[in-house]
Amino acid sequence: MQSFKTVYFDIVGFCNxxxxxxxxxxxxxERGNKIPVELFEKxxxxxxxxxVITKGxxxxxxxxxxxxxxxxxxxxxxCINKLDLKYAVSTNASQVPFIDKAFVxxxxxxxxxxxxxxxESYSRIHGFDFEDxxxxxxxxxxxxxxxxxxxxxxxxxxxxxxxxxxxxKCEQFADDxxxxxxxxxxxxxxxWMLQDFINKRSPKEEVDKVxxxxxxxxxxxxxxxxxxxxxxxxxxxxxxxxxxxxMITCCQLARNHKEYSCGTILxxxxxxxxxxxxxxxxxxxxxxSGLAYYLNNSMAMPDFYKRSAKQKILALKQRIKKxxxxxxxxxxxxxxxxxxxxxx
Length: 344
Hints:
Layout: E1 6-9, H1 37-49, E2 58-60, H2 73-82, E3 86-91, H3 101-105, E4 107-114, H4 119-124, H5 130-146, E5 152-159, H6 167-176, E6 180-185, H7 191-198, H8 204-213, H9 220-225, E7 239-241, E8 246-248, E9 261-264, H10 270-278, H11 281-289, H12 291-298, H13 309-321, H14 328-342
Parallel strand pairs: 1-2, 1-7, 2-3, 3-4, 4-5, 5-6
Antiparallel strand pairs: 8-9
């Protein structure tokens, strides 16, 4: 049976951000729930028992939800620590959790999702107070490091057409706090809105707004046509679970899609669920049309972005961390490539 290195496990099925291009934003289909701690633990135990996950798997406590809205997240983390698993969090930083030694014990990394670096950008996308977010990020980073956390913090900066001038400001903030900075193009991250856009069913006002804000949509048809005929979606390498312990077909599918779920993990044979996922019609159509290729290649780092010296150093540190199991020759080759890249 296939083992997964990365699992995206939503502990809450909702988010408090008001993103206009996201499933869990202002156009969400329905509000999800919070997973009971007992269900979370039993699900992980079954996945471990069936070798679907191993001690090397990172449990990412998010997919569409905001994990720090979970008021019992400390109990969720205690379950992970008890099973000796690693975990990760992606957050909009609107909330600061209680951070203690248990919180950082098996923490692998934290990602901060940011739609810009100004109140104007935050008002357009997340809807939060920008200064509050900055304060919360600094607090989370400081509290974790004060407890000995040596892992990575990353800012995932969503690049829109209106926030290009803010990229370097955000990078400087990241440099000042030794946070990895990763800008990438925002996408139309709502299945039904994207389907309407591709099939030219969207109202003109919506099309105009989408094209005004987002990159990589003007020539979406050509990008889909450029998909290799034998393209296999990388989503099959990830396990995605919602807060009801359903194994999800794909992180892009809306909750009201008929092939959203492959089955509940506790009630269904894992082998059956995994096979069902591979044979869903929506996956075959998505890969066959080139949409899967477009989606997995559109969230790219902009060509015009050039990393700061600090970011090059942080990238080198990350690469060195990954070399512990490599041969000396492989390590030297990796370092050589990094040094070459650092000159560009």
